[in-house]
Amino acid sequence: MALALALAACGGGGGSEVDETIPEPEVLSSKGGVLNVTLRQSPSSVVVAGHRFTSNVFNDSYIPPVLKLRRGDRMALTLQNRIGKADNQIDAPMETNLHYHGMSITPIAPGDDVFLHVGSGADYLYEWDVPANHPQGAHWYHPHAHGLVETQILSGMSGMLIVDGLLDHYPAFQQLRERHYLMKDIVLPGDDPGGAKTKTINGRLGGTIRLRPGEMQVWNLGNLGADAYFDLAIEGLQFWELNRDGNILPKPRRLDSVFLPPGSRSTVIVVAPAVIGLYPVRTRAVDTGPKGDPNDTLQLATLVVDGVPVDSAVLQARLGDSAVALDTATAAQIAALPITRQRTITFSETDDGNTFFIDGRTYDVSRDDVVVHLGEVEEWTLVNVSAERHVFHIHQMDFLVKSINNGDIDETGLRDVIDIPYAQNGVPGVVKIIVPFTDPLMVGRFVFHCHIVEHEDGGMMANVVVLPPGASAMPAARMRTMTASSSIDTIGASLRRWLADYGVVAANRPSMDLEVPVCTAAPQAQ
Ligand SMILES: [Cu+2]
After folding, report:
1. Looking at the structure, do residues 340 and 242 belong to the same domain, yes or no?
2. Rounded to an integer, what distance in angstroms lies between the CA atom of residue 35 and that of residue 141?
3. What pLDDT, on a 0 to 100 scale, did the predictor assign at position 110?
4. Ligand 1: distance of its center to the CA of 347 in Å?
5. Cα of 355 to ligand 1 centre, how many Å?
6. Taking the model in full, what pTM does it have?
7. Is residue 518 part of a domain?
8. How many angstroms separate the alpha carbon of residue 359 from the centre of ligand 1?
């Protein structure tokens, strides 16, 4: 009877796919301390939200492999740029690259260097090590060639990246089944680009997720889309957050819904309803402001609770336990660091909503907007004077959110993405954060920007330089492009030598040969 009632109450959904179980992405794990992987970007036939069309994706899949590494492992990732004309977003070959969002690794090639582009037809080998003390949790990878980011993510080029080991700190839950749900937005061919984007879970709209009554699972959730917000809610199902943006929470946190601005991730334990039935999986409406994109409520999928009940009462009681053996910086430790400088960073836009500014300026690769020395800890006041939300993100590090609108909103903690409320009645939205420039691996040049990537492409990005102690300046910034015929990254090599002179990165990445060309020229026949 419960099932029939739930069916009647459910409605909506995605029509033809309603019976299809949402597929899980392939998981590629490191072996022998290395994750060797090739990601080929090319036009492929995909099915998204029940529509078949061609789009530029990784390895022919709109939901590409989850890349899983452990602390101390090496990533050896070859990116093959074969981007070309497709039904969706892209009409011609273009440059690209890869950013490892959430990873605290070097910003200098062959690491997480967004100033390096990979030209059409070229291959590039990214190589970096997961630091031995890296926080464990869910991160992601996506192209970050400024000006082309939105079109490439909207094509489907984004995937999840996990530093494994979170459950070492929550051992009671080690045996639970782990799942990966990637939420993305897309403009389907023929849809109005200015309207609400289509939202999916693992590329599906209207599919099903199955749990037994009372069953507990670990879900890695990520908003790996371009511009849209997700606020995931399932009536009757409990969410207990263990990890946010790759940072372990000291204790599981009960959530009514999982609010995910673009770029944000959350690892949660779910506890299925005890009663057999169908439960709508919704994203709640998000008010993005008078100038923001529409983000209405939508049923994304249906949770099917069926089968033999699981008696999880004993395990549920463990949700009150604190994490064990925490060995990464806690919010309390970051909050206790002495502040060396305060800054105010203002986010604004033109009335037509097409140009976006940080401190009144659009992005200029050659301008260093923030220059600090390693070891400095700053307090930033992020001010949004515009009539839509913006989403602050900084590369290579996590920051501590101290307050949002002076404490009106409770979303504090360590993160790498934070939503900045829009201005209302002339009062700007304000977020205060602590930015610790303390990890030697971040020395170099990287960026912060709005992670509504339409805004980033529209100018809302800035450079940060973290200088090693004793340095007064870093060699000037220049975008450079690896092509199939010009494969040696001389600028990257000179930057690595500059770093090595200060003994910073070389000490952390001993096997990196400074002189070896890191780019291969091997365009393959299509
Ligand atoms: Cu924005």
Report:
1. no
2. 14
3. 92
4. 8
5. 10
6. 0.92
7. no
8. 13
